[in-house]
Amino acid sequence: MPEPVTPVTFPPAFLWGAATSAYQIEGAVREDGRTPSIWDTFSHTPGRTAGGEHGDIAVDHYHRYRDDVAMMADLGLTAYRFSVSWSRVQPTGRGPAVQVGLDFYRRLVDELLAVGIKPALTLYHWDLPQELEDAGGWPERDTAYRFAEYAQIVGEALGDRVEQWITLNEPWCSAFLGYGSGVHAPGRTDAGASLRAAHHLNLAHGLATSALRSAIPARNSIAVSLNSSVVRPASQSPADLAAARKIDDLANGVFHGPMLHGSYPQSLFEATRSITDWSYVLDNDLTLIHQPLDALGLNYYTPTLVEAAASASAGPRADGHGASAHSPWPGADDVAFLQTPGERTEMGWTIDPTGLYDLITRYTREAPGLPLYVTENGAAYDDKPDPEGRVHDPERIAYLHGHLSAVRRAIADGADVRGYYLWSLMDNFEWAYGYEKRFGAVYVDYATLARTPKSSARWYGEAARTGVLPTVSEA
């Protein structure tokens, strides 16, 4: 007789959420005063996205948000993480807000609160107003000050209703995929610019945190969402350990160093001194960046495996961020990226819940006492409706069960993890991959934009309602 399975039970106050971003779902890119962001420009540039696809309509959330919120409530979600489109609120990235743009987010937040769903607002999920990019973008210091002004505007408009605030989503992608490898908007390939962008994103975070403190009630929470890599050496040889340290600096230390500790790793400066002299780090910058946080968001998909290679090109990330002749890892040409073993998602990313456990426990040590949220975690699969129109995705259910179990194990071991946001609520525009990769718990028919909750959405909703993970066989 098989041993009974011990239920995986979460704390009563644990938040069960799903996440999206503005450009991936909203559409309505030319309505109510919105102007182009770098992703509008990038996706309309031939050869930049799969099939030349773009977010002009996306999944039309701008017009369907009420139905989408009702769907979230029906599923049993207790939290929803969304991002604000900067160019919908402040079309040039400067000056006064367009109130009709802010009104959309006011209506969305009111709709969420009316059904008991906590809103978590991300100020920046990669969609810089094009006018600011034309002025130099994130490699320019002025962009950080513009971002702080934008944060103040949104904070004053929504601070009375939104308790959870996130300044930046995955600044690593903004800096190194946007300005280094060029596989993300704005598509630039300049190693020095990518490092300048990283610093100014750090500065933007610090300035925005201070601006929000002056604009929102003290009870509210301010965080940042980092896609910190779980970097593993291929062996314990000194060369492989040095390679892992170099990538850890470029993936993690470049952001959490200033944000959490008020300093950059000295080894990062040494590894990149042939690329930049870091003279743009001005006196007092690290103080401005190192603002007290109320929480930290962690985004996790797959670990990174590296080894030393005397003449290797770092090339694209092994976790599937896209192919490019340009590296997103400045100063790491002597590091080779290896494919981690195991089952993979449609993105080619290895499924490894131990990486999420390791990430959570690492940041429990890096930032003792700081509450943690898993602000993104999920998987893309080739989901298709059956003849009755139902969408069964047992692979995603197994993925979620494994990763949520890893979260619970970390909590049992002392980590203060207060919520989990599944990526993503629904299928959407997946950046340079266009619409070919489906991360959603809800299936979207792109021809009709009809939404159909997949079996994983029902499974996750049951977990949200009960606080207990259903077994995989219960799906």
Automatic annotation (TrEMBL):
InterPro entries: GH, GH_1_N_CS, Glyco_hydro_1, Glyco_hydro_1_AS, Glyco_hydro_1_beta-glucosidase
E.C. designation(s): 3.2.1.21
Sample GO molecular function, one term: beta-glucosidase activity
Residues forming the catalytic site: 376
A Pfam match: Glyco_hydro_1
Keywords: Carbohydrate metabolism, Cellulose degradation, Glycosidase, Hydrolase, Polysaccharide degradation
Signal peptide: none
Record field: catalytic activity: Hydrolysis of terminal, non-reducing beta-D-glucosyl residues with release of beta-D-glucose
Gene3D superfamilies, per database record: Glycosidases
Family, per entry: Belongs to the glycosyl hydrolase 1 family.
Family matches, as NCBIfam families: BGL
The protein, known as: Beta-glucosidase
Source organism per UniProt: Streptomyces hokutonensis
